[in-house]
Structure formats: structure tokens, C-alpha cells
């Protein structure tokens, strides 16, 4: 889910789904994050890549592939 929503890690994503009453452990899911996730579900891979290419031409640095499979901060076996 973290990858789908463009969040850096599973641990970070859990804060968006937390039912904790504490604001320290909870994050609101923004409209742009929801749009990003739904676009990735609805659009073809080619359409996503065209959009990312246009964003890069506008100066964005985008890498949707994690550098390290263990980058979510979770201990790996």
C-alpha cells in the first residue's frame, strides 16, 4: 500500500490508517495522495510513464522504485 500511495515505507503508511486518538501517530490522507493512488490503479503503465516524463521535463525528480527492498524500516529476516 505504501508504494501505491507514494509513501516511503509501510511503517509510514500505517500512520494514515491508524485509529489512534493521538495526533502523533495519525496522519490525514491528502487529496493528492488519494488521486495519485487512484491514477496508478486506473491508468495504464504507458499513461503513467507519459505523465512522469512530463513532470520530469518540468523539473521534478521522480523515482517510484524503492532503492532498497528493506527501506520501509522493518527488520528483514
Description:
The chain has four helices and no strands. The protein is an all-alpha fold. It has one domain. It starts with a helix and ends in a 20-residue tail after the last helix. It has helices at 2-5, 10-17, 31-42, 45-57. The radius of gyration is 14 Å and the shape is elongated. The longest helix is centred in the middle third of the chain and has 13 residues, at 45-57.
Short key terms for the protein model shown above:
77 residues, 0% strand, elongated, mainly alpha, 4 helices
Number of strands: 0
Mean pLDDT: 78
Radius of gyration: 14 Å
Please state the structural category. mainly alpha
Q: Determine the N-to-C terminus distance.
A: 21 Å
Number of domains: 1
Approximately how much beta-strand content do the residues carry? under 5%
Rough shape? Answer: elongated
Largest sheet: none
Give the topology.
Elements: H1 2-5, H2 10-17, H3 31-42, H4 45-57
Task: Give a nutshell description of this structure.
The chain is an all-alpha fold.
